[in-house]
Design brief:
about 240 residues, alpha/beta, eight-stranded parallel beta sheet, globular
Length: about 240
């Protein structure tokens, strides 16, 4: 008998949670309070999958395309989900993203901060959580997004000026494999940057690092959050 989509998602969720827990234990993170939040990356997958994930206990989902995410959030009835914007944020999309995102993980430029705060105020939304996306590439690649590590504290200070934005921490994407840089080394660098930020903003404890292929490296480096798509949802359908 062919497994239903719900059964497939349930099994894959179980497997990913097992990987996260094994990585946490291997890293010596044995405190029960030192948990790792799972964000399921649902970009390009239908709203029905998001609804099934919510039924299976998922609390956080990630999207990277504004138009798709807005439509999907309108179609999903669950009020318990937190929606994360994980894609590179364009200036002309800030206002639209403020309508649906509970967490924006891709703030990497000063020009995004005041418009985001203004839009959140205009739509009378609760404060939006902000993660600063940091470039950990050995050679900066503008197409991948991410702030220069030397600019992170300046960005943090700018976010902290706005009551409707809550500085939650930092995020990074591992360097492309072609660079030859080990994801663990990149995430260790992010951990150092996270520690610097927390010196001035102790509540900014989130460190988002690790995806389907490198979640273990992220957890070993101290990630408090991993962003997992393919290992749970499978091969992505073609982008329309």
């Amino acid at each position: 008998m062919t497994a239903t989509r719900r059964e497939v998602l349930a099994q894959r969720l179980h497997d990913v949670h097992e990987r996260i827990e094994a990585a946490r234990i291997a890293a010596g993170r044995l405190d029960d309070d030192d948990q790792v939040q799972l964000v399921v990356v649902t970009k390009t997958f239908p709203a029905r999958d998001v609804s099934l994930l919510a039924e299976l206990g998922v609390t956080d989902v990630g999207e990277n395309r504004d138009q798709e995410a807005r439509a999907k959030r309108a179609d999903v009835s669950s009020d318990d989900l937190r929606w994360h914007m994980i894609g590179r944020l364009q200036r002309n999309k800030v206002s639209s993203v403020a309508r649906w995102a509970d967490v924006v993980e891709s703030i990497d430029r000063h020009e995004l901060i005041a418009p985001l705060a203004g839009a959140v105020e205009r739509f009378d939304r609760k404060p939006v959580q902000v993660l600063l996306q940091v470039s950990v590439d050995p050679v900066p690649d503008p197409g991948r997004g991410g702030a220069d590590p030397d600019d992170v504290e300046s960005l943090a200070e700018a976010v902290a000026r706005h009551e409707v934005l809550h500085l939650a921490g930092v995020m990074a994407v591992a360097p492309h494999p072609d660079t030859g840089m080990d994801p663990r080394a990149a995430f260790d660098r992010l951990h150092e940057i996270s520690a610097r930020v927390r010196t001035s903003w102790p509540h900014a404890r989130e460190m988002s690092a690790g995806m389907s292929g490198d979640l273990e490296a992220g957890v070993a480096a101290g990630a408090t959050q991993v962003r997992i798509g393919g290992a749970i949802l499978g091969e992505r359908p073609p982008v329309q």
